[in-house]
Amino acid sequence: DENLAYEEASHNASAKGGDAILSGLKVGASKDETLKIFKAPAAQTPEEDGEVWEYYSPTALVKFDANDRVTYALALEDPTAYLDTPSGLRVTTGMRAPDLVGQLGKPPQILQEGVYVVYNYTSDGVAFWIQDSKVVGLFIYELEN
After folding, report:
1. Backbone angles phi, psi at 111, to 5 degrees
2. Average pLDDT over residues 85-109
């Protein structure tokens, strides 16, 4: 479940993020800004602390807080998705995991999430879902203060 990995990643984060960009979307973006980039969601699920927008074909999740600001976004198995890291590296779906680690360094946290291994770069607010040694998921999230 993607939410579990987010909760784990968010809980272990220590600084404020916001420099990572997922296919044009940043943490803190409004719903209007999100609609311009990701268009209308297939489903909207209210949660105690906000709302999650779900997209299918390709799969994406965008979580909003109670103030309607993006706290995380995940693109999964989307060949058009990209993630620009705070260090300036552009990561795309299909990138080889060894190349990712070669450029970003060893991830501070590695999680198992079903069939995926998640490389979580806790100080950057980015994580990557890995399957068969390739990046299949791109994730940005708000870091705790």
Report:
1. -120, 150
2. 96
Instruction: Name the average pLDDT for the chain.
Output: 89
Contacts for 38 with CB less than 8 Å, ≥ 6 apart:
23, 25, 53, 55, 60, 62
Pull the structure tokens for residue 33: 């800004």
pLDDT tens digits for range 33-69? 999 999 999 999 999 999 999 999 889 999 999 999 9
Tokens of 28: 């803190």
How would you list the strands of the sheet with 126-131, edge to edge? Answer: 43-47, 50-55, 59-64, 70-76, 134-141, 126-131, 116-121, 109-113
Query: Distance between terminal CA atoms of the chain?
Result: 25
Query: What is the CA 20 to chain-centroid distance, rounded?
Result: 9
Residue 119: phi, psi to the nearest 5? Answer: -95, 110
Confidence (pTM): 0.86
